[in-house]
Specification:
Layout (H helix, E strand, L loop, with lengths): L1 H10 L9 E12 L2 E16 L3 H14 L1 H6 L4 E11 L4
Parallel strand pairs: 2-3
Antiparallel strand pairs: 1-2
Helix pairs in contact: 1-2
Length: 93
C-alpha cells in the first residue's frame, strides 16, 4: 500500500524523500482449525509533507487502499486498516 500511496502522490506532483514517508506494519494471526492464519494487518504511516499539500495527501490516503493490488488481493480474507501521523514542513522561502 505504501507504493500505491506514493504513486498517487507523485502523480499529483507531491514528491516525498524516502525518509519522509515510513510505514510500520503489524500483522495479527489467529488460530483457525489449529492453523495460524493471518487475519488482520494494521499500517501506521508517518509522513513529513510539504506545506500546502495536506489536501492532496488526505485525498490520496482516503483512496489508496481501494487502488492497491495487494489490498485487493487480501480483501475478504484479511482485514487491513491504517492510520497516519502527518507533519507539515514549512516551505523554504
Amino acid at each position: 500500500m505504501l507504493g500505491t500511496l506514493n504513486g498517487a502522490l507523485e502523480a499529483r506532483e507531491v514528491r516525498l524523500d524516502p525518509e519522509a514517508m515510513i510505514a510500520a506494519v503489524t500483522g495479527f494471526n489467529e488460530i483457525v482449525d489449529r492453523t495460524p492464519v493471518l487475519t488482520r494487518i494494521e499500517i501506521e504511516y508517518r509522513m513529513r509533507i510539504p506545506e500546502g499539500t495536506r489536501d492532496v495527501v488526505d485525498w490520496a490516503l482516503e483512496l489508496h487502499q481501494s487502488k492497491c493490488p495487494t489490498a485487493a488481493t487480501l480483501r475478504g480474507a484479511v482485514e487491513v486498516s491504517w492510520t497516519a501521523e502527518i507533519e507539515e514542513e514549512p516551505s523554504q522561502a
